[in-house]
Amino acid sequence: MNAAAEEQRLIQYGKQRGHPLSDWFQRTHPTLAEGITELRGMVRTATVSQILGRMYEIFGAREAYLDRGDRQAAENLEKLRELSRTLFRTEQALTLRQYVTSLRRSILAAVPESERADRRPGRASAPPYVRLMTVHAAKGLEFPLVLIPSGRPRSSAPT
Questions:
Q1: Is 153 among the domain residues?
Q2: I need a surface site. Which of 20, 23, 39, 142 has the fewest CB within 10 A?
Q3: Do residues 86 and 113 touch, judged by C-beta distance below 8 A?
Q4: Residue span of the structural domain in which 74 resides
């Protein structure tokens, strides 16, 4: 079959049923497809720790590493989950996006793992980044410096 004919087949397929790859995946791996659908729903309501735990169950990640004898990789998965719990306790709300952003910042800043996992209030050193949040999210937290914008632009010249 040539490329043009395949393109037409895919266009017609989409009009009739959906997407060929996702339909194939659902037919071939119904349990995984159901798990992925469940995870997509959890993203809006569950904590990051709950999402990670369920993801490990659905895909059998920890067991796969343990079966291969890679105990360190299995422990690293649990460290990721524990980090999400720690961040959830110190932040009022932690979305999946905030968690991934926090991990990215830690990696890019080359912050040692011991410091990433220990971000409890009262620590001597401040985190190596600026935190932006609403006044409501900051309630009860302490910071060495707080900037609150006025919300209206200042005019440089009198009118």
A1: no
A2: 142
A3: no
A4: 43-118
How many domains are contained in the chain?
1
Whether 50 is in a domain gets the answer: yes
Cα 98 to Cα 67: distance, rounded to the nearest angstrom: 32
62's CB contacts (< 8 A; 6+ apart) are: 56, 74, 77, 78
The answer to the question of residue 34 being in a domain is no
DSSP H stretches of helix in the chain: 3-16, 20-28, 30-42, 48-59, 61-67, 71-90, 96-108, 113-117, 135-138
Q: What is the pLDDT of residue 54?
A: 92
Per-residue pLDDT band for 21 (boundaries 50, 70, 90) equals: confident
pLDDT at 120 over 50: no
Which of 85, 86, 63, 83 is closest to 73 using CA atoms? 63
Answer whether residue 76 is part of any domain: yes
